[in-house]
Every structure is written in structure tokens, then in C-alpha cells.
């Protein structure tokens, strides 16, 4: 761990609880140095391990103002190996904690939950499909608040409740596409103190028809009763 004292609420403070999976006497680069370097590089557009190392080399003087870097910038191979060893849930919890300290959601803010497949995450040679993630996007803050990986042979319906559990959405409006139009998900959003806006499709039976009729009636009455 870096010996430089960190201000409360800093990135390093939120990742201090992250367990280092490496053998202690073989460690040259502090775990928090690697994590902080990677986050800074990705924020600046780095998309590969090589790009993260290159970013570190170009910004080493600045990085040394808040990181220890006792052996300089770690190689891209070292960075990749460390992240492959980290426990994903711990890393996610630390990241969400840090993001929450940066973004204070205001009343009425829209938080959009959406699923996407990660680019280049599939592996045809090993028969692995693309990694599918559900993310929460805060529109006003222009920030991803958290992500949850959709389990293999599952879908977004199982991942959305897990993502909501990570977030404090009280007073916000949560939007989800038609996949998330489920009674249990709507109830969870209400229980967490938020409102919801869920998309509907024609294959959702009577509910889609009922909503269409409701809006037709509302337009005819100029929304006077709504």
C-alpha cells in the first residue's frame, strides 16, 4: 500500500479494503497503485492493458503525487495478471462505494438501467459467449453508478434486482426497457423509495392493451384526471 497519506473520500480510501490475492514476498507493485492507475487510464480512454501501461508511463510524474510507485509503472502483463486474480464482487463493491462518494443523486433524477454485451468479450476458441452486463446510468451526473454481470444461461431479469440492491435510488426515477417490466422489479423500486418508468411490448398481454386504453382515454379528456 502507498505510504502517501490520502485525503478522506479519495479513490484509494474506497479501495483500501480490497484483498490482495498475491503472495506478499513476491509483490513489487502495491495493489492500490495498480488499481488507481488502471481506473485513471480507463477514464482517459484506455481500452487495453498495453494502453494502461502507456498512460502510466506518460503520466508517471503526476501519478507519483498520490501513488507510491516504488518500482515505477507496472508492466501491462503485471496489471492484467493482478486483475485476473482479484475477486470481482469485492472490486465491484469498492468501485460502487467510490462512485457514490462522487455522485449525489438529486430528487427526480433519472437512473436508466440497461443491458449491453461487452465488446470483444466472446472467445470462439473456448466456446465462451460474450459477457452481458446490466448498468445503471445517472443522466444528470453523466456517470455509470454500477454494473452487474448477467449470469450464464440467465437474463437481465435476474441481474436487475442485484444491481438495484447496490444503489440508493430513493427519490429518483428508474427507467428500464421491456425486459424489466416485472411485478417484482417494480415493487423493489417502490420499496427502495423510487418511482419507475418501464417500457412495454405487445407480447406482454393484457397489460400493454390496458396501458394503451388508459392513455387513449387520458388524451380524450386532455389529461384532466391524471
Q: What is the strand content?
A: 5-15%
Number of helices: 9
Number of domains: 2
Strand line-up of the largest beta sheet:
3-2-1-4-5
Structural write-up:
This protein is of the alpha/beta class and 226 residues long. It has 2 domains: 11-96; 105-220, Nucleotidyltransferase, domain 5 (2-Layer Sandwich). It is 41% helix and 13% strand. It contains 9 helices and 5 strands, in the order ααααααβββαβαβα. It has helices spanning 11-14, 31-43, 49-58, 60-63, 76-85, 88-102, 156-166, 183-191, 205-220, and strands spanning 110-117, 132-138, 143-149, 173-176, 195-198. Strands 3-2-1-4-5 form a 5-stranded mixed beta sheet. α2 (31-43) crosses α3 (49-58). The longest helix has 16 residues, at 205-220. The radius of gyration is 22 Å and the shape is elongated.
Amino acid at each position: 500500500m502507498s505510504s502517501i497519506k490520502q485525503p478522506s473520500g479519495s479513490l484509494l480510501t474506497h479501495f483500501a479494503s480490497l484483498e490482495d490475492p498475491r503472495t506478499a514476498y513476491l509483490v513489487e507493485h502495491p495493489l492500490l497503485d495498480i488499481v488507481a492507475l488502471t481506473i485513471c487510464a480507463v477514464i482517459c480512454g484506455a481500452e487495453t492493458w498495453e494502453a494502461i501501461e502507456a498512460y502510466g508511463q506518460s503520466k508517471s510524474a503526476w501519478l507519483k503525487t498520490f501513488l507510491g510507485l516504488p518500482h515505477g509503472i507496472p508492466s501491462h502483463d503485471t496489471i492484467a495478471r493482478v486483475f485476473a486474480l482479484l475477486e470481482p464482487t469485492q472490486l465491484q463493491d469498492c468501485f460502487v462505494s467510490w462512485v457514490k462518494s462522487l455522485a449525489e443523486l438529486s430528487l427526480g433524477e433519472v437512473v436508466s438501467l440497461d443491458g449491453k454485451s461487452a465488446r470483444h468479450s466472446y472467445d470462439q476458441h473456448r466456446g465462451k459467449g460474450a459477457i452481458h452486463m446490466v448498468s445503471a446510468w445517472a443522466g444528470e451526473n453523466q456517470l455509470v453508478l454500477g454494473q452487474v454481470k448477467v449470469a450464464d444461461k440467465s437474463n437481465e431479469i435476474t441481474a436487475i434486482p442485484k444491481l438495484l440492491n447496490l444503489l440508493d435510488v430513493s427519490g429518483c426515477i428508474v427507467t428500464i426497457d421491456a425486459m424489466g417490466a416485472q411485478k417484482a422489479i417494480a415493487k423493489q423500486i417502490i420499496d427502495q423509495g423510487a418511482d419507475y418508468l418501464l417500457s412495454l411490448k405487445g407480447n406482454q398481454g393484457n397489460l400493454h392493451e390496458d396501458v394503451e386504453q388508459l392513455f387513449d382515454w387520458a388524451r380524450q379528456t386532455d389529461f384532466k384526471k391524471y
